[in-house]
Amino acid sequence: MPLYDSEAVVLRTVDFREADRIVTFLTPGHGRLSGLARGAKRLRSRFGASLEVLTHGRLVYFDRQGKNLIGINHFDVLHSFQGIREDLLRSASSQYLAELALHFVPERQAAPECFGLLVAALGQMEAAKGPEALLRIFEIQFLALLGYAPRLDACVSCGRKAAAYGFSSKQGGLVCGGCGGASKDLASVSRGAVHFWRKASELSRERIGRVALDRRLNGELKRVLHGYLLYLLGREIRSFTFLERLRREFGQVRAAR
Ligand SMILES: [Zn+2]
Questions:
Q1: Cα–Cα–Cα angle for 74, 79, 82, nearest 5°?
Q2: Phi (first) and psi of residue 242, to 5 degrees
């Protein structure tokens, strides 16, 4: 049975049977992979605490032809991102990124760019100027890597430039008043938001955590991007809902002081 050796990030773990765990990873060479970690729930497991969501490590596994699950041989931690785990908002933000990768990256297809983006985002999450800005930039770059970059330079329907646009998730881009005037599925989008989106798509991976984004613009981009992601996925993203609830509760605690 051939053994493989790859970098990997843990995206999800689910308890399985009495002592085992099913772990889903993102790898550069084979995209999303799920495997059985035998005995991982036991206190003295050979995996220790390494198989935690968000951990970046080196995965050694065997893959049997025709089997859905890989067999996990070892997983050695490269980065545990301890600083993220100690901060509730940053940890929930990172879980959201992991969930996006879980839902969107196909199984067993090379995804080196998505992998690189996720590792870069986790590496910068701890010290990011604004974790929210980092989330928006991740969403923008991740969508583009998956082939869903929207048209942002002109109307996606007629190709003309306009003074103002709406955003159509269905058509994947900006729509001018003439083409989409009465359509209810258009989200309003300001010039500032379009400008940020375009700049964010060109940002080098080393700088994605160094950008600040004001609250109003973040709120607008979050609404448009979330609508687009939901349209593509066809379902709600659990960790996004959790993160929004956390933010509201934190906001209330702050307001009450
Ligand atoms: Zn048009």
A1: 120
A2: -65, -45
Query: What residue spans define the domains of the chain?
Result: 130-257
* pLDDT tens-digit map of 65-101: 778 899 999 999 999 999 999 999 999 999 999 999 9
Q: Give phi and psi for 23, each to the nearest 5.
A: -120, 135
Which residues are close to ligand 1, an ion, with C-beta < 5 A? 155, 157-158, 176, 179
Query: Do residues 152 and 225 touch, judged by C-beta distance below 8 A?
Result: no
Residue closest to 55 by CA, chosen among 74, 30, 29: 74
The pTM of this model reads: 0.94
Question: Ligand 1 mean position to 165 CA, how many Å?
Answer: 9
Query: What is the CA(155)–ligand 1 centre distance, in A?
Result: 5
Burial class of residue 246 in the structure, from the number of CB atoms within 10 Å of its CB (0-12 exposed, 13-18 middle, 19+ buried): middle
For residue 16 the two structure tokens come to: 């399985």
